[in-house]
Write a structure and sequence with these properties.
The complex is a heterodimer of chains A (304) and B (255). By secondary structure, chain A is an alpha/beta fold. Chain A is built from eleven helices and six strands. The mean pLDDT of chain B is 85. Classes of the chains: A alpha/beta (304), B alpha/beta (255). Chain B: It is an enzyme of class 2 (transferase).
């Protein structure tokens, strides 16, 4: 008795949403055709069907991974801009803005992982930020310490690997020690990775990679002729990640530049510059970013 | 046991319908966002034509002096149609842009360099020292042609130059190369390998993807990046709007 009702309901959804939607939107991944509509229904209904998985055993893991990776960004990088402006708009102090930003950071990380992202990189503090007023810098360093301590149980519970990249020469001993503890405690986790860039600069990253290669060449570990782009990428600070190049790079607050973040790694990253300030960037805004990402063609500098 | 199979069947059906429902919801969100962008695109087109016809006074006088160096990155599909690139350069000359870096990843525009320079009035090849020997009132434009070989490949060649110098200096055991691998050293080495190193204030990206398409990374530190859509559908009004918006940007460079 319920079977015809369910079928009628599905048919109504098809007629009123899917068919016009496919017709109107050229940007959806499936083009408007009866074959694709039927294919879509079959895929959607049999996605987690055991029989379908058994039939797919023939295809290689590489092909499956490639298909899955194309749908969702595996590595999302975020430039956390707008904390001070957010606080100004509300008549609050700068430190309140940074605290709100820190809280948003953890919430957004949860959303990202829930939607299938493997790696999240956060541009928390740039080399240029040392020029800010001393009390603001001290506030930010204190925030890092507080949040590393308070969120450690969460990282361990959710098995999230934490890596901190950047120039560590100016960071305090206490924060360095805490960073070491967090990295050590989470180094064996896989599948979820948060990279926090503190005192990071894209140019510095390239230079330290050059220095690293030079040292290896001096020590006879590599030949000079073997120094190429691949060798360089293995020395960049993002070598800690399974996916070193971000698929999607988000900068909040409407500014349209990457400000010395991931200069080498972002060559073919999708850039998304929403106007919303970082403390206001929530799940809905991230969903919009993902929808944007999925709608664009990605051709990595060559014809597909 | 008799009830087990029908229960499993019902449960499997419920799961499939649930998954289908979630998938349709995701598609519905796509449709809503697509419709929004279509409406937004129509709005933008109307605004662009209004700007081109001079209806908006804000765009009739732009402080072009703030834009010392402009870069244009073109998707390889768009780069094959040099006529559009030439028209864009003519527009830029009209607006008063004095220096532009033209980039495409495969160097198609580099190959069409002679055609471009012969066709765009007032255009000439940007010299290595970057000096533009003409008065600001002249409608002339210096053009630099860039490709992906000026990006990572150039950085590797420059890194090799620094490496050779470092190894020749016979550094002591604990030396980390601090005196050989600095930003200014790498910038200088890039000039040696032919990268003029002109840092653009604004990068206009023409293509379907909002990405800088592999534009030389070393130059992109504080560059404003604006996605303009496909070169096939470029509009003079959109170009004016992007440049005008840039002149209003205030950067704090992280401080």
């Amino acid at each position: 008795m319920s079977f015809p009702i369910v079928l009628t309901f599905l048919a109504l959804i098809l007629v009123f949403f899917l068919v016009p939607g496919l017709f109107i939107s050229r940007r959806l991944r499936v083009s408007f055709s009866l074959t694709n509509i039927v294919r879509f229904i079959k895929i959607a209904t049999s996605k987690y069907d055991d029989e379908e998985e058994r039939n797919e055993k023939g295809s290689t893991m590489g092909e499956k991974v490639k298909r899955e990776r194309h749908k969702m960004p595996k590595h999302v990088a975020v430039i956390l801009d707008g904390n001070r402006h957010w606080a100004e708009k509300r008549g609050l102090g700068t430190s309140d803005g940074h605290e709100a930003g820190a809280k948003r950071l953890i919430e957004n990380a949860k959303d990202c992982f829930a939607m299938g992202t493997n790696t999240i990189s956060l541009f928390a503090f740039s080399t240029e930020n040392w020029e800010r007023p001393e009390d603001e810098v001290n506030c930010l360093m204190a925030l890092f310490e507080t949040n590393f301590k308070s969120e450690m149980p969460y990282f361990q519970r959710e098995k999230i690997k934490i890596s901190v990249i950047g120039n560590r020469s100016k960071i305090s001993e206490s924060l360095l020690s805490l960073i070491g503890e967090v990295e050590e405690a989470t180094k064996s986790y896989e599948g979820k990775h948060i990279i926090i860039a503190i005192d990071y600069s894209g140019r510095f990253d390239i230079l330290q990679a050059c220095k690293s290669l030079a040292k290896k060449a001096k020590d006879g570990l590599i030949e000079v002729e073997d120094i190429n782009e691949k060798a360089m990428e293995k020395e960049l600070m993002t070598k800690c990640s399974e996916f070193p190049n971000p698929d999607l790079l988000i900068r909040t607050s409407g500014e349209q530049r990457i400000s010395n973040f991931f200069l080498w790694q972002s060559a073919y990253s999708e850039l998304y510059f929403p106007n919303v300030l970082w403390p206001d960037f929530g799940e809905a805004e991230y969903l919009e970013a993902l929808t944007w990402y999925q709608q664009r063609q990605r051709r990595f500098g060559r014809r597909v | 046991m008799d009830l087990y199979d029908p229960m499993m069947h019902v449960s499997s059906w419920i799961r499939q319908v649930g998954n289908l429902g979630l998938d349709l919801l995701w598609r519905f969100i796509h449709i809503v966002v697509s419709l929004w962008y279509i409406v937004f695109g129509i709005f933008e087109a109307i605004e662009s034509y209004a700007i081109s016809l001079g209806f908006d006074e804000r765009y009739n006088s732009i402080d072009i002096k703030k834009l010392r160096c402009l870069a244009v990155a073109v998707d390889i599909a768009d780069a094959r149609d040099v006529a559009n690139v030439i028209e864009l350069l003519q527009w830029l000359t009209t607006i008063g842009v004095k220096q532009v870096g033209l980039y495409d990843s495969q160097g198609l525009l580099k190959k069409s360099k002679d055609l471009v320079l012969a066709t765009v009035p007032g255009s000439f090849l940007l010299e290595e020292n970057g000096k533009n020997d003409f008065s600001p009132d002249e409608k002339r434009i210096a053009i630099e042609f860039i490709s992906s070989s000026d990006n990572k490949e150039a950085v590797m060649k420059a890194a090799n130059i620094l490496l050779q110098r470092y190894l020749k200096s016979s550094p002591p055991e604990n030396d980390k190369g601090e005196n050989f691998f600095t930003e200014s050293h790498l910038s200088e080495a890039l000039r040696v390998v032919g990268d003029n190193g002109h840092v653009p204030d604004l990068l206009l990206v023409y293509g379907p993807i909002r990405s800088h398409l592999g534009f030389p990374a070393w130059r992109l530190r504080y560059t404003e990046i604006v996605h303009m859509g496909s070169l096939k559908y470029m509009r003079y009004g959109s170009l004016l709007k992007a440049i005008h918006k840039f002149t209003g940007v205030r950067q704090n460079y992280g401080t």
